[in-house]
Amino acid sequence: xxxxxxxxxxxxxxxxxxxxxxxxxxxxxxxxxxxxxxxxxxxxxxxxxxxxxxxxxxxxxxxxxxxxxxxxxxxxxxxxxxxxxxxxxxxxxxxxxxxxxxxxxxxxxxxxxxxxxxxxxxxxxxxxxxxxxxxxxxxxxxxxxxxxxxxxxxxxxxxxxxxxxxxxxxxxxxxxxxxxxxxxxxxxxxxxxxxxxxxxxxxxxxxxxxxxxxxxxxxxxxxxxxxxxxxxxxxxxxxxxxxxxxxxxxxxxxxxxxxxxxxxxxxxxxxxxxxxxxxxx
Length: 281
Hints:
Elements: E1 3-9, H1 14-23, H2 29-32, E2 47-54, E3 59-67, E4 73-80, H3 89-103, E5 108-114, H4 120-125, E6 128-139, E7 151-155, H5 160-170, H6 176-184, E8 188-195, E9 198-208, E10 211-219, H7 228-242, E11 247-253, H8 259-264, E12 268-278
Parallel strand pairs: 4-5, 10-11
Antiparallel strand pairs: 1-2, 2-3, 3-4, 5-12, 6-11, 6-12, 7-8, 8-9, 9-10
Domain N-acetyltransferase: 10-143, 151-281
InterPro entries: Acyl_CoA_acyltransferase, Bact_Acetyltransf, GNAT_dom
Protein name: GNAT superfamily N-acetyltransferase
């Protein structure tokens, strides 16, 4: 069979994006997230796709990679039409990704697949090993937006020093480049939780299609255990309600001790995503 592979950068042209969407038709929505469909045609997106067409111009497989926060760190995944999975097409697509990552001088990469997909043998055959798992959580928008007295949620307005101190205390200083990216990306909204005008929490919100994503979520370690995280999440669910969105989403590593806070705040487990890294890393 005659096949042609090519690498195309985001944003994709309309025809290529439509072909990719058609190939995924019928796939559960949650299984598509690792392929970054919201970024394919986004003007500011950093990423690329490796696409495989037959001689009859039928798209039968592709890989999609995205530099999520502009730090030369790429997350990618691939999908091959079931009728063509014995042609080593997956390996060819992965080779195309490796070539494109080298061209872009990527500093790191992770490969993501939804758990339940029989992928382990394939990943090990191309030199990757398991790294960690994340759980995708979802909650419905909430009409109630009340906050206890003394708490307020305000948009970021230049409090860079205070925000950096909070995030470093909650994580470590490796989070600072992500914070800086969130500050300059117009699609990302940084919100600050204040207690009596003191910064105690933060999250960055991103709207993708009809979903509101909560990222970079942190409560200062000295303020944890007092229900402030639940109040922040409750407010975020109300914001999704006000904006007419269908759901609010976040993901958390399976080993994260805060998982019970999310589930206690009305979030349910949607799926688990496995991440793989190259064996030489």
